[in-house]
Amino acid sequence: MDAATRQTAQTIIDFYAGFAATDDEAEQRAAFAASMAALNQGDALIATMDADGELTLDFTRLLLATGVALQWLMERLQSATGESSEALTFELRTFIDGLADD
Questions:
Q1: CA distance 17 to 41
Q2: Residue 10 and residue 15: Cα distance in Å, rounded?
Q3: Which of 7, 49, 51, 85 falls between 20 and 30 A from 91, CA-CA?
Q4: How far is CA 41 from the centre of its chain?
């Protein structure tokens, strides 16, 4: 994993730590803003435009950083609970679906 991807992963962890550390919405927004700024500065997402003006977005660093962090957490959760990765993935998907705005 290259340095920029590791920094992206650290920024995602910093976002979680800053957001989870408080229930104050202003502090949570500040943690979000600081993380967004760090992701922008760290090239977590790379945008390029070709000669025809077509924009291409490369999310590789962001996906790798998120994937590695999620894999690490899921392995520890699986070890701690004895649940299968499939069951934990299903529970996570159910939780995410429960966050719907409707």
A1: 19
A2: 9
A3: 7
A4: 16
